[in-house]
Amino acid sequence: MSRIGDRQNLLKPVKAVTNTFFFTLEMHSFLSISTHREQRILMNTSPSNFQEQRMALGDALVCLGQEFPDLVVLSPDVSISTRTIKYKTAFPDRFICSGISEQNTIGMAAGLSTMGWVPVVAGYAMFVGGKAWEPIRNSIAYPHLNVKIVATHGGINVGADGVTHQAIEDLALMRSIPGMIVLTPMDANQVEPALRAALTIQGPVYIRLERAAIPVLSEANAPYPIGGSIQLREGRDATVFAIGGMAAMAVNAADALAQEGLHIRVVSMLSVKPLDEAAIVAAAQETGAIVTAEDHNRCSGLGGAVAETLARLAPAPVEQIALDDTFAESGSVNELYAKYHLTSNDIIGAVKKVISRSRAIRSL
User: Fold this and answer.
1) How far apart are CA 291 and CA 241, in angstroms?
2) Helix 277-286 vs helix 302-313: crossing angle, to nearest 10
3) How far is CA 158 from CA 17, 146, 225, 276, in A?
4) Which of the chain's ends, N or C, has fewer CB atoms near its CB within 10 Å?
């Protein structure tokens, strides 16, 4: 029997057990960003250009499943919400519903990887990245197994799902694990390139996606350099480093500030680990004022990573746009972003503050 045949037989008993427990409770409403009510969020992107990253995830997996015959997808009973149900339809023999058991799912993925499979675990960031942190650390990262984790529903933009589903600590948890790569696609177009990049390297990778529809800023099918970044706006007065949907907020803020004569560099960080240190050092030297923007707690996420780099290589004043070490609550995405200061107006305020600090330092 061929090696692939052996591995296919290995999957059969696993699928037989897990499928016994297959049931799905889909109670989540489809959230969208409204532009009709008065909002603090400045938008310069047509709503027609808003897309959900999880929709792109389902299509990306189907496409990559054709190219990677060893790709097997595991879902802790959220395949409808994460859209990995599309992969199950296309490749039923390479899909496992593991039930509502993220820790077991990670253990199964670890075992499958030792048999030559390339497992992709797709689940909510709060649970696959939070509840399953210890198995990720000890069963995947410690032996440096080739498992990819796609965590949807990152940040508070899950909205009405509330605090129990709002992963605001996952970046801190994942970037602290030795050898773990942490990718942060900024929109739907970057989901497939990010996943493709993860599949072409050996070792564990964590890919963070968001729940709500967010503006599409990147080109389709563009390369996704791990440890790289994309500069979205030119500028020499200050630099905003952003991840995920906050990149669009930063662009809106930069465009508004340009009307006031301030030219702000905007950089989307494609990964939080490894970090594009060259872009950070260049920004510190050329603009002298840094702002970070993320839908995450301010502790140990993008802001912490950028500050660590500046402290080591190019000290400069920094302001953070992030949750101020607090839990959020249930509500619409726009209401939450306004209350917890994750809007374009908040970025504008942070930019003006950090420019003032930078000028004061230079005047000494």
Assistant:
1) 6
2) 70
3) 31, 29, 27, 28
4) C
